[in-house]
Amino acid sequence: MIILALDSCFDACSAALASKTGAILASVCEPMATGHAEQLVPMVNHIVAKAGLEFSDIDRIAVTYGPGTFTGTRIGVAAARAFALALDKELVGETSLAVMAEAISFEIASKDGGGALDAQDILIATDARRDEVYCQLFEGSGVRAYGPPCVTSPAEAAAMIRPGRHCILAGSGAPSIEAAAVAAGLQTTTLRPDLLPDAAFLARRVAANRQSAPTSERIAPLYLRPADAKPQSGKSIPRVST
Questions:
Q1: Euclidean distance between the first and final Cα of the chain, in Å?
Q2: What's this model's pTM, rounded to 2 decimal places?
Q3: What is the DSSP letter of 22?
Q4: pLDDT digit string (tens) for 158-206?
Q5: Alpha-carbon distance values, 170 to 90, 137, 191 (Å)
Q6: Paired residues of 230 in beta bridges
Q7: pLDDT per residue over 113-147, tens digit each?
Q8: In this structure, are residues 154 and 173 in contact, taking their beta carbons and an 8 Å threshold?
């Protein structure tokens, strides 16, 4: 089984191909604030060629469906839907935060063999502006989510941490949670405030059957709050009566 994974939720764009064992056959991940729509499909073409594969070799499509920026998330989901439709393949979705947790778990396990993860949780938090964060809490071993992602204040995010259990904070929103966690006497370590989703870890997660989202051809972007941009009121052109 060959998995094609895509992500464009935040300030990066990535694509990866993995085998059924989770071995990464080819991948690319580039930071970018804009330009996801122009770069994502060429990235896929590049990694398919680099892996020496044909598009017909792909068995499953995976995509992060949010939370993230409105435009970036929509681009990734639309591209994944198009590939799944064109190739007549299964489409799998996962949250961007779960992919980031997968990366942190992999990083820690690579250093100590993963034993420390049994007694730790991972709280992924990204800056959502307006003094809020997008966050989701995971069990360190197995990287299973305790609940769905949410948008909340740093103090409320800190309250999600389970007392008596060490928690790793990661992502751009982690530093804002750390102070509240320390004040509450919680045991935390902050890692990788620069962390962004990488499709390679989405591919690994899907290969291990750890994705928390259902398999569906109707995966939709996950927006945790309304868009900042809204249509101007009172600016519409009146219709001509007939």
A1: 60
A2: 0.90
A3: -
A4: 999 998 899 999 999 999 999 899 988 999 999 999 999 999 999 999 9
A5: 31, 11, 5
A6: none
A7: 667 788 899 999 999 999 999 999 999 988 999 99
A8: yes
| Structural domains present in the chain | 3-96+197-207 (3.30.420.40), 97-191 (3.30.420.40)
Query: What CA–CA distances, in Å, run from 6 to 123, 198, 237?
Result: 22, 8, 40
Helix (H), strand (E) at residue 64:
strand 60-64
Q: Is residue 92 within 8 Å of residue 61, measured between CB atoms?
A: yes
Query: Which tokens go with 85?
Result: 């439709």
Enter the tokens of residue 150.
């949410």
d(CA 158, CA 184): 8
Tell me the one-letter amino acid at 14.
Answer: S
> Could you tell me which of 220, 225, 8, 215 has the C-alpha nearest to residue 99?
8
> What's the pLDDT tens digit per position in 67-77?
999 999 999 99
Query: Which one, of 197, 188, 102, lies nearest residue 143 by Cα?
Result: 102
Cα 233 to Cα 112: distance, rounded to the nearest angstrom: 57
Tokens 């071993």, located at residue: 141
Q: How many CA atoms lie within 13 A of 28 on its CB side?
A: 17
